[in-house]
Amino acid sequence: MAETITEQDHRALLRLHDVQKRYGGVRALRGVDFEVHAGEVHALVGENGAGKSTLIKIVSGAEVADEGSVEVDGAPLGGGSTQAAMEAGIATVYQEPHLFGELTVAENVFLGRELLAGGRVDWATQRGRVGELLEQIGLDRAIGDVRVADLPVAEQQLVSIAKAFAHSAKVLILDEPSAILTDREIEVLFGVVRSLRAAGMGIIYISHRLDELAQISDRVTVMRDGEVVATRPTRSLSVRQVAELMVGHELRADTADRVVPTGDPVLDVAGLGRSGAFEALDLQVRPAEVVALYGLVGSGTDAIARALYGIEPADSGAVRVDGRAVRLHTARDAAAAGIAMLPGNRKQQGVFADKSIAFNISSAHLRYLAKFGFWFDRARERSLAQGFLTRIAIKAPGPDTAVGALSGGNQQKVVLARQLVRAPRVLVLEEPTQGVDVGAKEEIHRLVLELADGGSAVLVISTDLPEVLQLADRVLVVRRGAMVREFGRGASQAEVLAAAAGDNGDDPTSVAADAEGAPT
After folding, report:
1. What is d(CA 281, CA 304) in angstroms, rounded to the nearest whole number?
2. Which of 19, 57, 179, 372 has a CB 3.0–4.6 Å from the CB of 68, allowing a cystine?
3. Do 332 and 429 fall within a single domain?
4. What total of structural domains would you count in the chain?
5. What is the 8-class DSSP label of residue 34?
6. Strands 75-76, 120-121: parallel, antiparallel or unpaired by DSSP?
7. Dihedral over alpha carbons 49, 51, 57, 58 (to 10 degrees)
8. Which residues are bridge partners to 293 per DSSP?
């Protein structure tokens, strides 16, 4: 790698001035000014729909600005193509690595820019160069001959970074790089990023995990509604201040004064189990109560969610809803019993991306929306969808908008709206705010509490510990498929995390520091 940069080398590698972009009548960017310096990690944050993706598309050559200028190391970025951006020194690494799994690491790194000798690929030189690059980012040079598909996701991301470094990138864009990594994998990634910064590269770091910013970034730019609202040294801002800049108002703790009524449970689970997944689960959720199941990755909470919705039925135990025994062998059984579920994997299980908002909301309620018992009522479908656009603040032009065109947070709201059509007695929410920004997260939390206040029994299943502690009236900790502890309001993050990691309660901080897979 290059030598560590000096203060005089701290020049602007990337400069955007008064950049504007429209899509039809929507102003995606409104006069954006943005700079990245040599030897700097510059965090870029904002709610989904704030303009971050559009800005990155322009920098990476996927889009062309309507107005304004973009310069890379003092030269105008021209060509309006990803190839032109790459040749100018822009490289982008996405959350899910864009590599060819059947090709080796070496083949991926130089794909399209192979090293030639005598008109043929110089495999020996190419493998040697890849080995050097891998060593520079902390990987074993021997994996150069390994198929990418055989590497862990964390190493695939590092291979993407090696590819950028091989092509003399000046500016590296990391788009949500830590979203699918464990804490220890994130530390490896951060080590590589720090090395690249020391070598003089300019890095744009995009993340919804605001607690990461202080660990890795020098400056942070906050965007809202297509505009830059602040650019400041990271050390000058707290996580809460960044979040409030993103949403444009103070964050409120709506749960502080909640009074949870007592009464007979709406959901009563006794001895529920499935062989090899979880065992002897007992839990109750009362009307207007929010109960959370919390566990580290692999604890079995996801299997419990699938059992309660009949996707993967339990093989022992009993479930009652409003005192009535129910059989949950299919999702239809769960719906008939008054149980609705927000699935954790929104893209694979939650939405029809190419279909409209109206279609997505009505798809589970065709009989309910039928006229005269057999004729589907399109007008009622659109009216229902329009009502949800207003009720839960789905940001879209109208009910005919394709869900795939929405931000992640708004897609999640559409899936939630589908569950609310019939006012469920029990609402099971699996990772309700995974992958959404802080503003959408706050809105979804508000909706969850409104549903509980309306009498629904809400069961939140989440690996996001701050979310669990903010929402839940009670937290049930699951470890290795069994419920091990219960906490009420006021529990500390350290003691809940320690219980999930196997602590016996004597020293709640000892395990928390080393808990593998623990959320940050």
Report:
1. 9
2. 19
3. yes
4. 4
5. E
6. unpaired
7. 160
8. 461, 476
Contact 90, 81 (CB under 8 A): no
Looking at the domain assignment, is residue 360 inside a domain?
A: yes
Tokens of 79: 């060509």
**CA-to-CA dists, residue 520 to 75, 139, 186, 189, angstroms:** 39, 25, 10, 15
DSSP, residue by residue, 40-89: EEEEEEE-TTSSHHHHHHHHTTSS--SEEEEEETTEE--SSSHHHHHHHT
Q: What is the pLDDT of residues 52-108, one digit of tens each?
A: 989 999 999 989 999 999 999 999 997 678 888 988 999 888 866 778 888 988 888
| Separation CA 195–CA 333 (nearest Å) | 54
Token pair 């790698």 in the structure block, residue: 1
Q: Is 461 helix (H, G, I), strand (E, B) or coil?
A: strand
Name the stretches of the chain with pLDDT < 70: 1-9, 48, 79, 95-96, 179-180, 182, 250-261, 297, 344-351, 364-377, 435, 501-520
Of the CA atoms within 13 Å of residue 248, those in its CB half-sphere come to: 9
Alpha-carbon torsion, ordered 442, 447, 452, 456, to 10 deg: -140
Whichever domain contains 440, its CATH number is 3.40.50.300
Nearest to 194 by CA among 404, 41, 353, 18: 41
Q: What are the distances in angstroms from CA 182 to CA 179, 277, 513?
A: 9, 22, 14
Sign of CA dihedral 22, 24, 26, 28: negative
Q: Are strands 120-121 and 171-175 parallel, antiparallel or unpaired?
A: unpaired
Angle value at C-alpha 285, between 259 and 503, nearest 5 degrees: 95
CA distance 128 to 144: 9
Residues with Cβ < 8 Å from 176, sequence gap 6 or more?
Answer: 94, 95, 206, 207, 208
Domain span holding position 34: 11-89+169-247
Q: Which of 368, 403, 421 is the last residue of a domain?
A: 421
Characterize the bridge pairing of strands 116-117 and 120-121.
antiparallel
Q: Which residues contact 384 (CB under 8 A, 6 or more apart)?
A: 358, 361, 362, 369, 421
Per-residue pLDDT tens over the stretch 211-243: 788 899 999 999 988 999 999 999 999 887 887
Instruction: Give bridge partners of residue 370 from the DSSP assignment.
Output: 376
Query: Does residue 6 fall inside a structural domain?
Result: no
Tell me how far apart the alpha carbons of residues 418 and 427 are, in angstroms, rounded to a whole number. 12
Residue after which a domain boundary falls, among 199, 231, 247: 247
Distances (CA, A) of 346 to 409, 410, 427: 10, 11, 16
18-22 contacts, C-beta under 8 A, 24 or more apart? 18/67, 18/68, 18/69, 19/55, 19/58, 19/65, 19/67, 19/68, 19/69, 19/70, 20/65, 20/66, 20/67, 20/68, 21/54, 21/58, 21/63, 21/65, 21/66, 22/66
pLDDT tens per residue across span 496-506: 877 886 654 44
Structure tokens at 161: 């970074």
